[in-house]
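Format notes (please read before filing issues)

Several people have asked whether sequences and structure tokens are stored in separate files. They are not. Every record keeps both together, in the order shown below: the sequence lines, then the token lines. Line labels are part of the format and must not be stripped during preprocessing.
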Amino acid sequence: MSTFELLTLPFMQRALLAAVFTGLAAPAVGTYIVQRRLALMGDGIGHVAVTGVALGLLTGASPTWTAVGVAVIGAILIEVIRERGHTNGDVALALLFYGGLAGGVLITGLAGQSAARLQTYLFGSITTISVADVVVTMVLAAVVVVVCLGLSPQLFAVAQDQEFARVAGLNVRFYNILVAVLAAVSVTVAMRTVGLLLVSALMVVPVATAQQLTRSFRTTLGAAMLLGLGASVGGLLVSAFASSRADVAPGPSIVLLALAGFVVTWPVGLWLRRRQHLTEPFDDEIPEDHHDVSEGHTHQHGADCGHVAVPHGDHVDYLHDGHRHAAHGRHYDEH
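Then the structure lines:
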């Protein structure tokens, strides 16, 4: 089957739409998560969301919406536990993650559903996505992208330096919880594309790849979204064409393509950083013997002027009002 014929199939068109929106939304929120050094948050939320999917299968409700609700609650709990910073916080998070996964598998069995049905959410099944699922994916992904771009100054400030953001008047707790909620929504958006167990890769790997080639946050955010888009669409097309010879799942194909991008760009990023270091090796160093001459000081310092004398090279400095002034002529050096 040719490329044009493949793209005319309805299920392929739905899959492409889901891949486009997922590829843009996941790296958008993933940029802030990586900036906060919480790269595995998406993986933990994915484990919790399994319970939400199982509740949907048990009650007959939409698994997507029940997964959103449970994932949001789990994300808030994760943020609260992380913020409190207790010594046993990592243990509490592990209990939450494993409990979510085990509870989801148990509830799925109680609902009379097979493991194969749950597997479509664990590892993705983008080619079987329905029209309703595509609409939900598009709406939720659009909300994530709009918030991530519209509030980028505030979210970046909180992710970069929380103390500075707090002094600047930002509600740090609110923005931290907002990022956690956006991550939860992104996880549920991507669960039909790459699966709950692989979604963290789509949130983190494009960001790590973009960081190899960019130096500003805005550039990293835009490049990560483009790389995520390329990996999602490219992985889908690769799996579609390879499926004629073998059973190739789209989710793993998307993740492996994203990882291949990182492997290719890593040497380039290493070379760029080395080149920058060789070009500007002393940017942060200030010569110790540097002096700024001031002609506006009218006080003539001497040995008996009452100020503390500090030896300095070939002359003597006199400490006055937090500044040192050298007594040699009418001009005075300030440090």
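For reference, the curators noted about this record: Residues 318-335 have pLDDT under 50 and may be disordered. The chain has 13 helices and five strands.
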